[in-house]
């Protein structure tokens, strides 16, 4: 797998910040900053040869959008999906939550093309709308699939908050949620091990978009650097950072800006995403 250049991921985050700045300070469902985010990510993927589609849905009196991007080639009966939510809360620009996951999977997608990766399996990416309103976009997507198409998705990897400023290195526990995949958990752990980073397992339950896939019995996994939870002394020993403080003190706040991101955590997670995708889809 390629070593993802974190400067490229940071450049995508800068775009999300600019989009928020130009659209009233957020990228929330039903607000112009959300659709601008969709259109910008789509333009990058279109230029790289992905087959993109915008799926709209209606929620809370507004139109929401999912962006789906297929990498041409691979066995369409064996689909590996990566996703993350592209919407923010209305309080702020949502750069760590979830510009980070969105920008990281975008850069991994672009590097598939740049490196000429030709996986055996078919690879599809999803940027979900209205996660912050209750997993609305991802649920809409899963519900829109026929039973046959659903059964073709062999794995779903979710990335929501991968650059928390006081980071933890958490991998979704296979046993901590319905349809958790031990193979995906171990592949993500192996990625961190190859970077000499210790991890902990976390039970994120229904708190992000993987839950929509899990409900449809699709095997799921993911990584997370922490939200409102407090870093323990033992965690600060192994990961650095500040014990007794939240992983992300700006979680769901106006201060979730470009400065609210650990470049180290962002880089490590992006590298692990690439590692897991290359290993899963090859
Ligand atoms: N989904 C939560 C949010 O967007 C954050 C979160 C991500 C919580 C992953 C747990 C696990 O606010
Ligand atoms: Ca890297
Ligand atoms: Zn959130
Ligand atoms: Zn989130
Ligand atoms: Zn490996």
Automatic annotation (TrEMBL):
Residues 66-276 form the Peptidase M28 domain. CDD domains: M28_SGAP_like. InterPro entries: M28_fam, M28_SGAP-like, Peptidase_M28. Keywords: Aminopeptidase, Hydrolase, Metal-binding, Protease, Signal, Zinc. It holds the Pfam family Peptidase_M28. One of its GO terms (molecular function) is metalloexopeptidase activity. GO terms for biological process: proteolysis. Gene3D superfamilies: Zn peptidases. Belongs to the peptidase M28 family. M28A subfamily. This is Aminopeptidase S. It comes from Lentzea xinjiangensis.
């Amino acid at each position: 797998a390629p070593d993802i250049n974190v400067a490229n991921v940071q450049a995508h985050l800068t775009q999300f910040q600019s989009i928020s700045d130009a659209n009233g300070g957020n990228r929330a469902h039903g607000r112009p900053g959300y659709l601008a985010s969709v259109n910008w990510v789509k333009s990058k993927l279109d230029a790289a040869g992905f087959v993109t589609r915008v799926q709209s849905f209606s929620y809370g009196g507004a139109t929401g959008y999912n962006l789906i991007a297929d990498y041409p080639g691979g066995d369409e009966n064996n689909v590996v999906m990566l996703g993350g939510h592209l919407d923010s809360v209305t309080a702020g620009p949502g750069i760590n939550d979830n510009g980070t996951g969105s920008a990281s999977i975008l850069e991994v997608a672009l590097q598939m093309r740049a490196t000429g990766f030709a996986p055996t399996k078919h690879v599809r990416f999803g940027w979900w709308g209205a996660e912050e309103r209750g997993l609305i976009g991802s649920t809409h997507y899963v519900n829109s699939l026929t039973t046959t198409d659903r059964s073709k998705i062999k794995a779903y990897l979710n990335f929501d908050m991968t650059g928390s400023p006081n980071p933890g290195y958490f991998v979704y526990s296979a046993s901590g949620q319905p349809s958790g995949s031990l193979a995906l958990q171990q592949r993500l752990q192996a990625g961190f091990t190859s970077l000499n980073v210790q991890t902990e397992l976390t039970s994120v339950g229904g708190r992000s978009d993987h839950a929509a896939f899990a409900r449809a019995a699709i095997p799921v996994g993911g990584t997370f650097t922490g939200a409102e939870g407090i870093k323990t002394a033992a965690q600060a020993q192994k990961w650095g950072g500040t014990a007794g403080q939240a992983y992300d003190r700006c979680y769901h706040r106006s201060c979730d800006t470009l400065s609210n991101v650990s470049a180290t955590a962002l880089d490590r997670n992006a590298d692990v995403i690439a590692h897991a995708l290359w290993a899963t889809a090859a």
